[in-house]
Design a protein that fits this description.
This protein has 9 helices and 9 strands. The chain is α/β, with parallel strands linked by helices. The chain has one domain: 3-Layer(aba) Sandwich (Rossmann fold). The strands form 2 sheets. It has a 7-stranded parallel sheet with strand order 3-2-1-4-5-6-9, sandwiched between helices. The longest helix is centred in the N-terminal third of the chain and has 22 residues. It is globular. The mean pLDDT is 98. The chain binds nicotinamide-adenine-dinucleotide. The site of nicotinamide-adenine-dinucleotide has 25 residues, from helix 1, helix 3, strand 5 and strand 7.
Length: 254
């Protein structure tokens, strides 16, 4: 059991993880308070530092979870993450798990994946300002690991929802239970790492190596919902690229 500060706890993934990580002592925080969740804006350095004190780990989910204006993703995702990492060092929290995204590497295609799949830590190739902010978060994590020895595990999450719903999800789905397994594994991992956040999908084309290295063994497979999702058209760029149709959308528009 660990004491975990969770940011962004009111969001989709936070709500999925809350019951699944309840054997830990959870400090639930979000910019939107309520229902057992304390108010914490991750851009408020003093408040973040106060919230971190005495925690064993920080699970940093809070932020803008899709494309947005450059200044907004810079302020919330990048500066907010810097506040979290700096507070961890100042208060002696040894480990931060960062919610990165597939969009940090969204412009790689299936052709870039070898037989073992696209490596977890393939160099960033963002498909949007959002993806760029996630790449910047990963690199801030690396800086704090290299300079301060903080363990920082960056999860390049695919599509985390209750059930897969679209053709692309057959490859990219991360089930809620596997999300909890992934976070549990990340809570004991060491170093600076980038790991795909994806379930054991039959059609997965992202590597399993990074996950296995930290003891993440996914159980779920989106294929069970194949009929509801529909067959992906693999000639469409949205099914060729890591980031799906994000690159077809205008930069900075939510
Ligand atoms: N759900 C997915 O499929 C997916 C995929 C890739 C990455 N991610 C990442 O995982 C994290 C959680 O995703 P989600 O789907 O739960 O998103 P979400 O939008 O449902 O939740 C994000 C939460 O962050 C909070 N937040 C926003 N600004 C904040 C601030 N300044 N301080 C503190 N909290 C703030 C929001 O109020 C919200 O509750 C995000 O960082 C997202 O980018 C999610």
């Amino acid at each position: 059991m660990a004491t975990i500060l969770m940011t962004g706890a009111a969001g989709t993934i936070g709500q999925m993880l809350r019951p699944r990580l309840s054997h830990h002592e959870l400090r639930l925080t979000d910019v939107r308070a309520g229902d057992g969740i304390d108010a914490l804006d991750v851009t408020d350095a003093a408040a973040v530092e106060k919230a971190c004190t005495g925690a064993d780990a920080i699970l940093h989910l809070g932020g803008i979870a899709g494309e947005g204006p450059f200044e907004d993703v810079l302020a919330v995702n990048v500066r907010g993450t810097e506040r979290v990492l700096a507070a961890a060092v100042r208060t002696g929290v040894p480990r931060v798990v960062l919610a990165s995204s597939n969009h940090a590497a969204g412009l790689y295609s299936r052709a870039d994946a070898g037989p073992a799949g696209l490596p977890d830590d393939v160099p960033a190739r963002p498909d949007s300002y959002y993806g760029w902010s996630k790449a910047a978060m990963e690199q801030l994590g690396r800086l704090y690991h290299d300079r301060h020895g903080l363990h920082v595990i960056c999860l390049r999450i695919g599509t985390c929802r209750d059930r897969p719903a679209a053709p692309r999800d057959l490859s990219t789905w991360l089930s809620p239970d596997d999300a909890a397994r992934l976070v549990e594994a990340a809570l004991t991992a060491t170093g600076w790492r980038v790991v795909w956040g994806v379930s054991a999908n039959t059609r997965r084309w992202w590597s399993t190596t990074g996950g296995l290295a930290i003891g993440y063994y996914p159980h779920d497979d989106a294929e069970r919902w194949y009929r509801q999702c529909g067959e992906p058209d693999l000639t469409a760029p949205a099914n060729q690229l890591v980031g799906g149709d994000m690159p077809t959308k205008p930069l900075g528009t939510p």
